[in-house]
Amino acid sequence: MKVRTSVFATLILMSEVIGIALFLRGFFPVPIKSSLASKNSLSDLPAEPLSGSSPNTTRLPHPLFKRVVIMLVDALRDDFLFGPNGGTFMPYTRHVVERSSSYSFVAKARPPTVTMPRIKALTTGSIPGFIDVVMNLNSPALLEDNLIWQAKTAEKRIIFYGDDTWVRLFPKHFMEYDGTTSFFVSDYTEVDNNVTRHLDSTLKRDDWDILILHYLGLDHIGHISGPYSSLIQPKLMEMDDVLKKIHGALISKEAEGSLPYLLVLCGDHGMSETGSHGGSSEPEVNTPLVLISPAFKRKVGMEKPGVIEQVDLAPTLALGLGLPISQNSVGRVIPGVFQESSLRDQLRFLHLNGHQLNCLLKDSMPSYEKEAGFEQYRVAEKAHGNWMKLYFEGNTSEVLSNMGKKVLKQYLEALAALSSALSKQLGKYDMYSMIAGMVFVFQLLMILLLAMPEALSADAAVDLPVASALLSLPFYLLCLLLASVHVLVCTSATSSCYYCTLSWGLVFVVVAFSSAMFCILISMAVRRLSLGLKYNGKSPLKTNVSEWSLSELDVLLLAGTVGHTLSLAASSFIEEEHQTWYFLLNTLCLAMFQDVCRKYFREKSTSKDEEDCLLPSKDCWNSALPQPDASSEKWLALATPIFTLVCCRLLRSINQTGVQWAHLPDVGHWLNSSEHRTVLSLLTVFCLVLTYLLVQRRCSWVSKVALAFGLVGVYSYRAAVGNVIFPWQHSSRTMSKGTVEARFVYVFVLGILFSGTKDLLRSQIITADAKLKSRGLWEIYSGLVLLASLLFRAHNLPVLCCCLLIQTLISQFIWKKLHYDAAQITIMHYWFGQAFFYFQGNSNNIATIDISVGFVGLESYVEAPAIFLTALSTYAGPLLWTCHLVCYLSSERHRSPVSVGHGCYCLALLRSVPAAVYIVLVTVLRYHLFIWSVFSPKLLYESMHLLLTAGVCLFFITMEQSPRKS
Amino acid sequence: MWDREIRAMVSTHAIMAASVFMATVVPAVFLPGFSVYGTHLSWLYSVSAAVTGVSVAVFWLLGIAQPTKKHSLGYKLSRLCRCCVYFFLSCIFFHFVVLLYGAPLVESALETFSLAVLLTSLTTLRCLCVLGPNVQAWIRVFSRHGAMSVWDTCLQITVACTLVGAWVGAFPIPLDWDRPWQVWPVSCSLGAVIGFLTGLVAAPAWIHHHRKHLTYKSK
């Protein structure tokens, strides 16, 4: 089956999008959320079960503790306390653990073991998913139901000292707080002194109920010098002293008759052997949890601490304080804590916890009846009701207590089953889906690579051996094999897997498609290999090599593409990716400059020196064109790369992006400050006029008028929103949303797009007029430019302007004159597009996406247009450049008609190589410390870019006329 | 003749590499507190000065520079002046290029200019020594198939190596390792010097290896 190159490339890209979507679904497990938006409150607690008569009381049992002090030591590993050195590291705590009334556990944290998600887990009892963090980057406050909120609603007074992540997560929740930033990792004393300095005065007071302390120093020491450094012991001794101080104060405050206190010592995550954290190794996951209260039984001697989940603390604290358990908690109460209360209360606590877990299970799983925990819970609840009946009948015999213990056991089993069923779905990578997606993407990439010689040939058509692959035996065998692997994996999988939940028909289609791809791949490889062998057999290898001489530009383009792809493995290079692109773009411009110099100066010298022309120079063949305007053209051509370089240098200072240098002042901020509104207004006017001048050249007069009106509309929109000054509107300073103005612009955008499409259709269907077609194309392009100028923030309009200017100049003076081929031009367009993506102020962080763009011209939030507009304005740079590529390649008269196909193929290759490599990198680095903050957002950006590129490639298909026609 | 020229080249290059080495070691012995990272600029200047002095001396002694027909003092002086002007212009050119690559405009102008001086003394100065202040010859040498002697090829290789070294040296700057050599312009100048040294080694080796295929038109 022969397909055109552009069709082939687009098909491959679209299938890659599907593969990446599958990968993403596996990489970001959907978090379990209760469908109810509200938070749990005391009023909707279940009644105490009682069989027979009407339900009993719905209130909670009395709280067990009056005051709670939570001392959270960042990166406290379990062996710092429970290990053999625990006695020397934290002598007092160790003593309390061994001899005093306390419970100690090893609490297992779930990966990613990073502070913020761990705090969420400790307070909500849920396990935050990856997508959760990415989605919540814009709203730092924790909106889910959580313990702190519950405590505040119950009018508990909370004091917090420590890491300011808490302050950001729970704004206005604390009666008193002092946040310390964990910005300077090298500081490990000041951060802790800032917490401890409040301690003395606070402990003396009586006006608080919950005190939370978060110590960061230990974590910082871990990052600096690891868990075996000499700094660890003094720091742990310091922590020990703090605990001793708190414990002493609490003991001295304790009054007869009132409820006892509770002191909790815990860590949010551990520390690996090198001192970092984020992964899932044993020392990173295991944290100590010590609960100290006079309400507990006094212990004699060290016991081996039991193992619990970190999320279990949240429901335990909630019940201990007499609060409802937060809705999305998957933890179960720690049974030991309530051992000293009455059997009725114990059963009631367990019942409440079970009820909450059961509700969550019903909400999050469609087939909840099949879960063992559900049935166990029902049985236990029934038994509980029977027990209550006996209890109220005044039965106090041995039978009652035995029966109660049995119910207790049933409850505990049910809780364990429920909790594990819920947490199975959470916080784990769905490796099967990820690998399936990855294999899929790589098959496609290999096909794309193998098709390179054919796709870039003069034919621009790829021969895909589909029929032979579908009819071959290996195809069916492979189908069978993959299907059986699928069944095997899905039946034996312990955790849930998205790919397994797909319907059988869909899975079969995917399996068949994948095996067909594999067969095609093999047959193509065989064909290529045999061709290569034949070729090599005929001619010696030496000539083959010398044919492959690359110019410096080719070397640069190849090295840059490969180097950029490799740089994605380092988190800093992802954070500062804009630097990579600026650097590469600069080098590209210099290389172009060198090419231009070589062309013009060499020519001059060849005409002067007869001797030199004997050289077999490549440039010699078109030297004879001594035209009158050659000299001015020469200087323009020489000036273009320099002008581009200067432009890029200026644009770079408009928006500082990235992480390390993002705080530096930039021109964008300067322009946006209110004193410089006049400058901004003048700049906007200048840019809009320049945009008009640059774009209108290639449009019909209708579009010219529409464009002019549209650009005026853009200015009035900016004036209405209040960014720029409107000269005839001094008095009334009414800020509106500019809906009317924006819609006015939209009308013209649609008009221009419509007229462009009309021209295109006419040229395609009625008359095969190349001129009409190119005009239609450029009109569509100018419609896009108009839309972009509306969506860009006012200070970013120079970016748009420079983009147009550079496009015009370079295509006029360099690409046309230097006879670059379609592949080179495509790569250059792609690089420019990438650099302009960052010139706009984007970065690889979700936080830089300008969401306000989604509201331009809309009264309220409407999802579909908002997402479309946001995506368009975020990717405006790459999109404009790729559109320019289509227009340029298809409207150049002297280019062969296949160049559009070549361009499309190169674009597909350029986009899919980094995407495919990146998903492998992300899979390998999935326990990296920065996987959430750096790698995952980049993954989303990459996949979005792939999707958009696939869309633009559709545009390419319509543009590529078949070579036979012309 | 081949062997002699290559031998001359090897010895020249050895002397120059030694001068770079001495420029690093000698001040460290005599000046207290001198180090490559700590007092980077002075190291940079000392390397530039050493390379400048040594290459001028060596090429003058060897007499590789094109034999001048006129020997009048005025002509020589004007040549010298033009050389100095070119040297300075090249410093400015490199400064400009480094600025375009994103070096801060005002803040560390001195560092940037020092890097430009280093690059000039490693690349332009050699051109001046070998080719003289003759722009046409430079363009000829640096265009495709333009080399007309062994020294031209050698020049191409060393200049390319130096520039590529400085280019590669910029890569580690965005990494968040907080190392002393990531400070601007340490990594770039180190890269340039390492590239230069590599070029000094690579040029004779490459020429020796390809001596069968190398043919020059004139001479």
From TrEMBL, chain A:
CDD domains, sorted: GPI_EPT_2
Keyword DNA repair: no
Gene3D superfamilies, sorted: Alkaline Phosphatase, subunit A
Compartments it resides in: Endoplasmic reticulum membrane
Any one GO MF annotation of this record: CP2 mannose-ethanolamine phosphotransferase activity
Pathway named in the protein's UniProt entry: Glycolipid biosynthesis; glycosylphosphatidylinositol-anchor biosynthesis
Record field: transmembrane: 7-28, 431-452, 464-489, 501-526, 678-695, 707-728, 740-756, 866-891, 903-927, 939-957
GO cellular component, one term: endoplasmic reticulum membrane
Keywords on record: Endoplasmic reticulum, Glycoprotein, GPI-anchor biosynthesis, Membrane, Transferase, Transmembrane, Transmembrane helix
Pfam families with a match to the protein in the record: Phosphodiest, PIGO_PIGG
GO biological process: GPI anchor biosynthetic process
UniProt entry tagged with the keyword Transmembrane: yes
Topology relative to the membrane: Multi-pass membrane protein
Main subcellular location of this protein, as a coarse class: endoplasmic reticulum
Domain GPI ethanolamine phosphate transferase 2 C-terminal, residue spans: 545-942
Family to which this protein belongs: Belongs to the PIGG/PIGN/PIGO family. PIGG subfamily.
Protein name: Phosphatidylinositol glycan anchor biosynthesis class G (EMM blood group)
Gene source species: Takifugu rubripes (Japanese pufferfish)
High-level lineage: Eukaryota, Metazoa, Chordata, Craniata, Vertebrata
Gene name in the database record: pigg
From TrEMBL, chain B:
Signal peptide: none
Principal location listed in the UniProt entry: endoplasmic reticulum
GO cellular component: endoplasmic reticulum membrane
Highest taxon of source: Eukaryota
Claim: Endoplasmic reticulum is one of the keywords in the record: yes
Keywords assigned by UniProt, alphabetized: Endoplasmic reticulum, GPI-anchor biosynthesis, Membrane, Transmembrane, Transmembrane helix
Membrane association type: Multi-pass membrane protein
UniProt-annotated location(s): Endoplasmic reticulum membrane
Name assigned to this protein: Phosphatidylinositol glycan anchor biosynthesis, class F
Native source organism of the sequence: Takifugu rubripes (Japanese pufferfish)
Gene encoding the protein: pigf
